[in-house]
Design a protein that fits this description.
Radius of gyration: 18 Å
Shape: globular
Largest sheet: 7 strands, antiparallel
Number of strands: 10
Low-confidence stretches: 6-21
Helix content: 10-25%
Structural class: alpha+beta
Distance between the termini: 33 Å
Mean pLDDT: 85
Order of helices and strands: HEEEEEEEEEE
Amino acid sequence: MSLKQLTLLLLIILSTKTFGQTKQQDLRLSILRKNIVGHDFVFKTEENTTTHLKYLGILRSKKGDIYKVMNSIWLWGQAHRATSRILIFNGNNQYLGNYYLAVTDDLPSFIKDNELVFINDAKDNDCDLKSITRINFNNGLPNKFFRKCRGDSGDFYSFDSE
């Protein structure tokens, strides 16, 4: 393969990846602009690929920083593997980063009293249904948080500004 062909192939791959990222960004921004809290928007983005986006609302820090929170589930491949993230945006809808979650059941349920609330779902048999996790953003964006499952067990999740 010549250098010219290799360069062309590389440009095609990069432009396809960039187009996919731009499409995801456009979907996210459209949901933020709609400002509809709690609705699950579903987009078939490619063959065997589906994106679920749910805007949860706004959290505020004591300093007045605004954080817009959105759940994202990306189902991909023939086996529909899932990539779950909590997406964080500022008050101007600029993407700040995300918390990558191990499973979709670990996504937050809603925002109440300036806290991100995680409720264990009945379909998740391993976790205590009475155990609730509440994360506040009073001191700004947490670098990491602990998502309770049962007793002292659960998972730590870290913020990634990519």
